[in-house]
Amino acid sequence: MPILFAPLAALAQAAPQTTQAQPEEPAAQTGAKQLDKVTVTGSRIKRAEVEGPAPLTLITAEQIKKEGFVTVYDALTTLNEAIGTVESDVQWGSHTPNASPLNLRNMGPGRSLLLVNGRRVADYPLPYGGQSNFANYGNIPAAAVERIEVLTGGASAIYGSDAVAGVVNVILKQGYQGDEIRLRHGASTEGGRETTDLSWAGGKSGPQWNLTYAVQYTKQEPLFGRDRPQMDDAGDAPYPSWNAEQRKLGFRPSTGLGLIDADTGNRLAPPAGACDRFGGEYYLANRQLYDRNSGTITDTGQLCGLSADFANWLLRSGSEDFSGYLHGTWDFENGLQAWANLAVYDAKGIWGTSPPAVVLPGNPALPAFHDAGSGRNLIGIRNITPSEAGGFDALRNSNKEKSWDLSAGLRGTIADRFDWEASLGRARYTVRENISTVDWDKAEAYFLGPQLGTTPDGLPIYDLDESRWWSPVTPEQYRQFGAHSINEASSWVTQGSFTIDGDLFEGWAGPIGFAAVLEAAEQGYRLRPDPRANLDYEVQNVDRGGGERRRYSAGVEFKVPLLESVTATLAGRYDRYGDYKAFDNADRLEIGTQSESTWNAGLEWRPTDNLLLRGSYATSFRAPDMHFLLAQPSSSQVQTTDPYTCIQSGDYLIANCGQGSPHFYAFDINRRGTPDLRSELGDSWTVGLVWDVLDNLSLTTDYWSIDLEDEIRDIGEDIVLRDEAGCRTGKTIDPNVPWTNPGGADYCASIVSRVVRDADGQIVSVERGPINIAQKHVEGIDASLRYRLDTARWGDFQFALNYTNLRSLREQTYRTDPNPERRDRDIRSKIRGSVSWQGEKWNWNVYGDRIGSVPGVRYHWDPVLGGFGGCTPFPDGGVPNDRADCVDTDPNSPTYQQKTSRYFGRVGPAITWNFNVGYQFSERARLNFYVNNAFNSTGWNHKDPYKLDYEFYNSRLFNPVGREIALEYVFKLN
Questions:
Q1: Does the predicted model carry a pTM greater than 0.85?
Q2: To bridge 149 with a disulfide, which of 41, 52, 104, 250 should be the other Cys (CB 3.0-4.6 Å)?
Q3: Are 845 and 832 contacting, i.e. CB atoms less than 8 angstroms apart?
Q4: What are 668-682's pLDDT values in tens digits?
Q5: What is the C-alpha to C-alpha distance for residues 172 and 169, in angstroms, rounded to an integer?
Q6: For residue 160, which of 431, 491, 427, 493 has the smallest C-alpha distance?
C-alpha cells in the first residue's frame, strides 16, 4: 500500500469498534489491503483516504510520548501551524495565567475551533486579555488521547463559527482493551520546576458493551525569578557595552520602599539604617537616571530598593491537575448502539506578577497627599516582602478550576445505506481566582491615620507615621491591610445534534457521498468579580459581564467523483445566533440576530496511484464573541489630556495640553461590550500535492492563504479621544500632524457617542471597547517529509520533517491606514522533525524544532534605509536612534569614533532538542528516560540586547526553565 494512505491504517485502528491497546512502538501497517471508512476532520462523509482536498496533520498518542511531551498542549504548541503568539506566563497584566490558548496561522486564539470527539467544548470562563472568550487546550488529559487531527484553513461550512484558521479535533480513546499505568517524574537541571505525572488508562468489554477509562494526575511546580539568578534583578538587563556603574545608574530601582516629593519628583532619603531593618530584602539605593543617548545623569534621591527586583515575579505558572475520562457503549440486537461520555477536570494553578504594593494615597485619582508633619506633598510606594507577609505562599495568586463534560447518544444504520447519529451533551467550566492585594482604606489607616482635612488644591491631609512606614511589618500587622480578591467565572454549553451520511446513488464515476447535520445549542458565561472591586480594594484583572445565546445550524455536504481519478467535494452551512440574554444589566441591550451562510469546495486529482494533487476554497466566519457583546462596564479613573478642549482653546500645541494645563484632568474610563457588532468574515484557499516518492518515502507541500474582514478589536481610550477631537474639529493636538477620518460618518457617530461630557464640555467618562474595524491577510507554505526503513537485523527507523514559512502578513486597523508587508514583525518560519529507532528491547527518539527569529525591542522602521533595525550601544552606553548611526564609513567624520558597527534587527532563532531512550524489561514493564531541551536553550542566554524590562528575553521564542530530565515507568496490568 502506498505511504500516501498509510496513516489511514492508524485511523482505522482508532475507530471505536477496533481500537486496541498498542505496543510502545507499533509496527507499520503497510500490508493492509482493505481499510474501514472513517470520519476524518474536515468532512462528515466517511472516507478511505486520510488525505483530502485540504491539509490535515495527524498527531498520535505515541508521538506525543516519544517526542517527550507531558501534556497535550506542550505537543500542540510545537505544531508549525501554531505559528502565532499567545500571552505568556510573564506577560504584564495576563488575565488567563492558568489557561493554554493556541494561535493557528497567526489569526488569534479565538479563530480556531477546538473539538473533543468532534464536539464543541465550553469556553474558558475568563476572557483572553480581558477581552474575548477562547478555548483552553490545557485541560485535555493526555492519558485519554488516541490521536489529534489538525485541519488548517476555513472550515465553517462543516463546523460553523470560529473555524477561520483551522480546527483541532482531539479524539479520545474508545473501545480500548487492557490497562496501562505510567509514572513520570522530572525536574530542571537549573533547579526548580519539578514535574510529576501519573496516569492509568484501560478498558473492559463484554459481548454487548465496552467501557474505556482514564485518570491522570499532573503536578508542575511554578518557577519564580528567585529560581533563576540570571534574571531576578534589574541589574541583569542585557545592554552589552554598559559597565557596572552604568548598569547601576541606568536600571536601579523605581520600586521598593520610598517617599516621593510630588512637587519635585525627588525621593526623600530614608532614615539611617532603615533599609537594613528588613534583613537583606532591601538595600539603600540611589535613584539616579542615566540618559543612554546624552550620557547625562539625573539624581532623584534615595530609596530602599529591593535586593532582587523580580525575585517574586512569575516565570512559569504552576499547576496541580486531576482529570478523568469514561466512555461506554452498549450494542442492541437490532444494530443500534448507545454511547455515553464523561470527562472531568479539577486543577489549582499557582501564578503571580509583582508582589502587592502599598501606594499612598490609595485613590489613584489623587496625585498625592499632604503630610502635616513634613509640610510636603508626598507619594508613598512600598512593596510587601515575603517575610512581612509570612512567607512566599502568602503572596501567591491561585486559580481553582473545575470542568465537566457529559454527553450521550445513539447511532445506527438506515436501510444498510446511511449511518446516523443523534447526541445531546452539557459541559460546564468554572474558575475561582484568588489574588493577593491590598485594602486601600486599611493601608491608609495603618500608615497615615485619620484624614485631618483637605488642602485648597484638593489633596487630603494626613500625618504620616514614619516609624511605621520605614519599619518592617509583622505578618499579623500585614493582615490588617493585606487582602485577597476573590473573582469567580463560569461558562457552559448545552448542545444537541443529528448527523447522517452515506452514498446517495451510484454516479457516472463512482458513488455520490452525502452528509447532513442539524445542530442546536445554548451557550453562556458569567463573570463575578469580587464585590469590593473598585471600591475598597486594589483589585487586579476586574472583568464584568455575562449572558446566554442560542444557536441553530444546518449543513449539507457532497462528495462527487467526476472521473475515476478526480473527486470534487462541496459543502454548505447556515448558522443563526440569537435570543440573547444579558445578566446583571440595568440597560436594555438591543442585540440583533447574526445569521451567516458559508460554503467550501475542494478538488482531488490522483493521476497516478502515488500522487495526489489537491486544492480547496472555503468561506468562514466568527460570530461576535459573547464578552465582546455582553461585557458590563468595568470602570477606572485616569488623568490625561482632553484633545478636544485643547484644540478648541486655539493654543493647541502638545506642550500646552499636558499636565498642569486645564486640559489635563481626571475622568472615568469604562470598558463595556458593543451590542451591534457584526460577524468576522473570512475566506481561505489551499493548493498542494501529496507524493509517494518511494514505497516508504512521502512528500507533502501546500500553499495556503487566509483573509479576514471586519475583525473585531478593542479600541482604547487614547484612540477614542483622538478621533472624537478629529471628528469634531478635523484636527489633532499637533498642528503638524493632520487628522484623517478612518471610517466615515458612521465611525464618527460611534466614536463621539463614546465620550460623555458635562454642560461645561468637560469629559465625564470615556467608553472603550470592541468595534469592527480591522482586516488581516496571511499566507504561507507548508511542507513535510516522511520516511520509514524496516530492517530485520537493525530494527526499524522513522524520519519526519515539517516546515512552515509565513510568506505574507498584512494587517490594517482602518481602511485608510497603509497596508505594508508585516511579515518581518513576527515569527516567519518553524521547523520540527524527529528521528526514531525501534529495536527488539531498546528504542530511542531524537526530536528537534526551530522557531525563526523575531524583531528585537528596538526593531523600528528606518525611513531612510527602508528597513528595520537597531544598534548596539556606544561605548558610553548611548544608543543610536537608527541604523544610519550604526556605521560611519567616512574616517574623517567627527563622529566616526563614536559609531558602532554592530547592528541588531532580530532576536533568535530558538532551537530545542529533546532526546529519549527506552528499554523493555518484559512484556509488561518498560523504562523511559527523557532529556528535554538537551542543550539548555533558555531565556537568560538569549537575552534581547535592548530589552530593559523584565524578563529581558523574548518569551515568544525562549523559556526560563532550561534543560529538563525525567524518568518514566510504564507497566501493563494485562
A1: yes
A2: 41
A3: no
A4: 888 888 888 999 999
A5: 10
A6: 493
